[in-house]
Each structure stands twice: as C-alpha cells, then as structure tokens.
Amino acid sequence: MKKLAEQLRSMMAEKANKENAVHMKAYMKGKFPFFGIKTPQRREIEKQFFTETGILKQPFSEEFVLSLWDFPERELQAAAMDYIEKFLKQLTKEHFYLMKKLITSKSWWDTVDMLAQKPVGKIAADHPELIQEEIEHWAVASDMWLRRSAIIFQLKYKERTNEELLYRYITLNADSKEFFIQKGIGWALREYSKTNPESVKSFISSHRLAPLSVREGSRHLPARLFPGE
Prior knowledge:
This is DNA alkylation repair protein. 65% of the residues lie in helices and 0% in strands. It has 229 residues and is mainly alpha-helical. It folds into two domains: 1-87, Leucine-rich Repeat Variant; 93-228, Leucine-rich Repeat Variant (Alpha Horseshoe). Helix 11 (179-193) packs parallel to helix 13. It is globular and about 55 Å long. The model is unreliable at 224-229 (pLDDT under 50).
C-alpha cells in the first residue's frame, strides 16, 4: 500500500504548479506545502489512479491512508479523505481510532471538518457507545480540534440529532476564545436550526455565547422567531 501511495504522489508531482502552490500555501496560513493542484484536477488524477490500480475494489486500507497522511503536500491528505469517503459505508468501530489519529495530526479545518462530520459522524451513529467512550472526552480535550469535532460530529444527523448532547458540548466550550471553536459552535447551531429553529433560538437566547457563534448560529433562523427585533 505504501508503493501505491507513492505512485499517487508521483502522479500529482507531475502536475505540480508552483504559482498555484504559493497561493494555496498562503491561503492555509503557510501551514502546509502544496503541489499547486486545484480540486477538480486533483480529483481527475485520483480517478485515473483509482481506475488504474483497482484499489477501490480492495478492502479499506488504513496503511494507504496513513501513507498519504505522512507526505508533506496537502493534496495527499485531501486524496486520503476522498479515499475514506468512498468507503464510508464500510467503516467500522475499529476505524474510529484511525479518524481520531488523523484529526489530531496535521490538523486544520480542511481535514478536521470532513473527518468529524462524515466518518466520525457515521461511525458514532452506528456505534453510539463511542459517544460515552470517546467523544465525551473530546468535548473537554486539550486538543482544540477534538473539541471542535465533538461539537460538529452531528452536523448531518438532522432529526436524529441528540439535542441535549449538542447543547452540552456547546456549553462546555462557550467561553472559548478560539476562533475555530466559536465558529464550530455557530456552524453546529446553524445546521440544527434547519431542523429545529425554535429550539436553537431558545438556546441562543438563554446562553452566553461569543458574538461569532451567535451570528453564525442565527443565520438561518426565520424572522418570525425574532418578534420586535
């Protein structure tokens, strides 16, 4: 699997664009180097790779994912996430710990947000015992990205959202000064407001939240919920 990861990296290296790479690195606050391959082209390369190697017909490989994660170029972590997404239905409880490892290494919003709401959200829905075993600890972890993940892992749950859990994790982090925590709280509230706007309005009105969280969380609330404003 390491050789396959190296093959994909070589395919991307052939399409490197130095000018794009400079802008992409700057957009990510200089945290990661890039080949300079934009998303549509990257996915075309991935498609060719998947077809030529037949890797999608084989069982899900943690080794392949971790090999891609080890490369410095950010396009390889993006490719790892695309690979993970293609196997979402087959992910099991055992894969949860891989997702935790990925969330806490080379961490930034572009990887964490996909991992939290898709594989972590899916696995936790299939194995709710993981909430008490793991995610409960994430909500108060020293690692900011684990806390953000605890707040947003239910983003796609809609009517299946555990409201008490969502609000408790938000409350535990409501006084955080971290931009990504405040933004994550607002995002989680905004998404849940599409399912239960009255509940979200009541929560926002009765809790002290950062202005950013309130602004983001209120974005889709109907005007009728704000009489007199």
